[in-house]
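Subject: complex prediction, re-run

Hi both,

The earlier run crashed halfway through, so I resubmitted it with identical inputs.
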Amino acid sequence: MLTKRIIPCLDVTQGRVVKGTSFTHLLDAGDPVELAAFYYKEGADELVFLDIGATPEGRDTMIDIVERVSEQVFIPLTVGGGLRSIEDMRRMLKAGADKVSINTAAVQNPKLITEGAEKFGSQCIVVAIDAKRHPYPSGERLGEGAGAEWEVCTHGGRKPTGINAIEWAKQVVALGAGELLLTSWDADGQRAGYDLELTRSISEGVTVPVIASGGAGNLEHLYEALVIGKADAVLAASIFHYQIHSIRQAKDYLAERGIPIRKG
Amino acid sequence: MDKVIAIIDYGAGNLRSVANAIKKLGYHPRVTGNPGEVLDSAAVILPGVGAAADTMNSLEKLGMTDAIRQLIEQRRPLFAICVGLQILFSGTEEGGWHECLGVIPGIVRKLPPGLKIPHIGWNQVKQRFTHPVFEGIPDEANFYFVHSFYVEPEDMSVVAGTTSYGVSMCSMIIKDNLIATQFHPEKSGEHGLKMYANFLKTALSRR
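This time it finished cleanly. Structure:
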């Protein structure tokens, strides 16, 4: 049976991991290479690196990081943040990334999804969707169940686009995305749980795997995203970086509750 | 003959990951797109990612398809990965119908609808017989998969591993000194590295 994936996310700017200062046993917890190696040994199923600075210099630094990580970490690596062109994608994949994640560039130029999928295969192209929740004013859409809709945001959540997130998810899959990385902009950083309604709506609406992101504060949140949200994988940053829980604890917790998980 | 390990370079995206895994095991692989150099090596690895038809085209352009056929006919050690496994078959349904190398009779089919496609993630490989390549790897160990098509060999005796995803599919074949996997050992953590180590140990101790 296919197992559910636990994915730590490393936010990187200017070559440094932004969170993660509480790893006292690492020589340098801000070093993405060392932190990646640590998570690999701990049993992470995959790693995501996001260049949150998304500057051209940051991209060169990220290439160097990916090259060094891929020499010692033998699980899939996804890299995102500021990738705008086929050439940007090619450089990351050549450096050792297995997948590239695009967000703003996909909204601005949806053809990039198709071109990337044709060049490198759909399995390489992850479309990241940042979604912001809008509750319906009372009375509207009465009786339709969900009391909200979600809008796609770009530029690290700063820029609303007016695009419906569920429709966008279906569209990017049709264009060639092999996987979706779905972040709830309302839940992100709150540690109060994933937006389960959003996660489920999108996971049920598309045929490709969905990685849930944004809001993990405890292990039950991971469980909920996988079971109620029907996500195929859960991404988390601070609960692992701040050592609230280890990857191992997360896997034990989920396995005890009957979730298929890779151990050992 | 020097005990050279060749990794076939035809522009596959994950070449570096495969080379990194082999280097991690202490070897110095020769990455090459030259059929002569490939045939000169003691062990050969054929990486694979992307579409089967593209892979066939790229290999044909290099004159590599004959080299791969020769390796298999001469029972030389070859490890083929993912699309590298698929192109060994008679043909694939991917993107219409495309003929492949035909060294393993059988066809490559699309995964059935109902589950998420691509099949992405860690899944168990059930070992159908004991073999040195499985040494130190528990039965039903998890390996990393990413694919939308799967192989269906006519001769079931070549099926070394099976994996369940909507269907029970062949995820690994062994025939003489040919080993081919649908999963990616280079992305499958310590079990994946161990599988390459086992293959190379046997391959390099020959003659």
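The mean pLDDT of chain B is 95.

- K.
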